[in-house]
Amino acid sequence: MRRRYVINGKVHDLVVTRGANGVFHVSHGERKFEMQGKTLPDGRWRVTVDQRPQAVWIAAQGDSRFVHSAATGALEVEVIDLSAASGGDRAGAASDLLQAPMPGTVIAVHVAVGDAVHAGQPLIVIESMKLETTLTAPRDARVKTVHFAVGNTFALKSTLVTLQDP
Question: Which helix (H) or strand (E) holds 160?
Answer without folding.
Answer: strand 159-164
